[in-house]
C-alpha cells in the first residue's frame, strides 16, 4: 500500500502557545495553590483583648507572651494558645473549729488574675482556671481558714471580725504567692455557728440585758431614795428655820411691847390718868361707895 505523499497545509494544526505566556499561567496556578494551602492551614491567629497568646512547638511553650492582635505561626510546627488575664473568682465554703472547740462555717471568695509575664508558667502547670481552683486555691484557703480560726474563741470571731479577716487575707495571699497568681481580693463572709451555740449566745445576751436593766433600776431607786432624803432634810431644815424665825419674832414683839409699855408707864402721871378718865367718863356717879373708895377723878376718899 502506498502512503499518501501529500503534506498537510499549515492551517490544519493549532499554533503552539508561546513559552512566556505558558510560564505566567503556571506561576499563577502555583500562587493560587499556595494561597489555597495557606488558607486551609490557617497559620494566622488572633489574640483577643483581655488575653495573651503563647506559641507552642510540638508541646514546648515559648516563654514570651503574645499581646492582643494578629500573629503568625508556622503550620504543622507552631500553634498559638490563649490565656485569660481577666479577674477570676474562686469561692469555697469552709468548716473549721475555734480555739474553744466551736464549729464555725464561712465562705471565702478569692479574686485573682494571671499576670501576662506568668502566662507561660500557668499554661504549663494548670492550663485551666478550674484546675488551679481545685488543686491550689481551694485547699490553700481551707488550710488558712482553719489555721486562723483555731487561734481564737468563738466569741472573738464576732468581736474581732476585722482583725481576723485581715489575717485570713494576708495568709491566703502568702500561700498563693509561689504559684505566680496575682491576688486582687479575699472576701470573708460572716461566720456562722451551730444553732445550739447561737441560742446560747442569744440567751447570754438576754441575761446581760436583764442584768443591766436590774442594775439601772437599782440605780434609779437609789437616786430616788437619795432625793427623798434630801427633800426630807430640806423640809426639816425649813421647819426649823421657820420655827426659829417665829420664836425670834415673838421675842422681838414681846420685847417691843414691854419697851412700849415701859415708855407708856413712864410717861403717865396721875394728872394725865385723871384727865384721860374724865375724857371717858359719862357723868354718872357710882351708886355705892365703900368707906375707902376714892371719889371718881378726885382720888380722895369720902369724909377726907
TrEMBL record:
It is found in: Membrane. SUPFAM superfamilies: Band 7/SPFH domain. Its main location: membrane. It is a single-pass membrane protein. This is Prohibitin family protein. Residues 42-205 form the Band domain. One of its GO terms (cellular component) is membrane. CDD domains: SPFH_prohibitin. InterPro entries: Band_7, Band_7/SPFH_dom_sf, Prohibitin. Coiled coil: none annotated. It comes from Acidisoma cellulosilyticum. It comes from the Bacteria. Keywords: Membrane, Transmembrane, Transmembrane helix. The chain crosses the membrane at residues 24-45. It holds the Pfam family Band_7.
Amino acid at each position: 500500500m502506498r502512503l499518501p505523499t501529500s503534506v498537510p497545509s499549515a492551517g490544519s494544526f493549532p499554533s503552539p502557545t508561546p513559552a512566556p505566556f505558558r510560564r505566567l499561567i503556571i506561576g499563577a496556578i502555583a500562587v493560587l495553590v499556595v494561597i489555597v494551602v495557606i488558607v486551609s492551614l490557617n497559620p494566622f491567629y488572633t489574640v483577643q483583648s483581655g488575653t495573651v497568646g503563647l506559641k507552642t512547638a510540638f508541646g514546648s511553650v515559648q516563654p514570651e507572651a503574645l499581646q492582643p492582635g494578629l500573629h503568625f505561626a508556622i503550620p504543622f510546627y507552631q500553634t498559638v494558645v490563649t490565656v485569660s488575664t481577666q479577674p477570676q473568682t474562686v469561692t469555697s465554703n469552709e468548716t473549721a473549729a475555734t480555739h474553744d472547740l466551736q464549729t464555725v462555717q464561712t465562705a471565702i471568695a478569692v479574686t485573682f488574675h494571671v499576670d501576662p509575664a506568668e502566662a507561660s508558667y500557668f499554661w504549663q502547670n494548670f492550663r485551666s482556671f478550674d484546675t488551679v481552683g481545685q488543686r491550689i486555691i481551694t485547699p490553700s484557703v481551707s488550710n488558712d481558714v482553719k489555721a486562723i480560726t483555731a487561734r481564737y474563741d468563738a466569741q472573738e470571731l464576732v468581736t474581732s471580725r476585722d482583725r481576723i479577716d485581715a489575717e485570713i487575707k494576708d495568709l491566703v495571699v502568702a500561700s498563693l504567692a509561689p504559684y505566680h497568681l496575682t491576688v486582687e481580693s479575699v472576701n470573708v463572709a460572716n461566720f456562722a455557728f451551730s444553732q445550739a451555740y447561737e441560742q446560747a449566745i442569744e440567751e447570754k445576751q438576754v441575761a446581760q440585758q436583764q442584768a443591766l436593766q436590774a442594775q439601772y433600776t437599782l440605780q434609779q431607786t437609789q437616786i430616788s431614795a437619795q432625793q427623798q432624803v434630801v427633800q426630807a432634810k430640806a423640809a426639816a431644815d425649813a421647819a426649823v428655820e421657820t420655827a426659829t424665825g417665829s420664836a425670834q419674832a415673838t421675842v422681838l414683839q414681846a420685847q417691843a411691847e414691854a419697851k412700849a409699855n415701859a415708855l407708856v408707864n413712864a410717861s403717865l402721871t396721875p394728872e394725865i390718868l385723871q384727865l384721860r378718865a374724865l375724857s371717858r367718863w359719862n357723868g354718872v356717879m357710882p351708886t355705892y361707895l365703900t368707906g375707902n373708895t376714892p371719889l371718881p377723878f378726885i382720888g380722895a376718899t369720902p369724909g377726907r
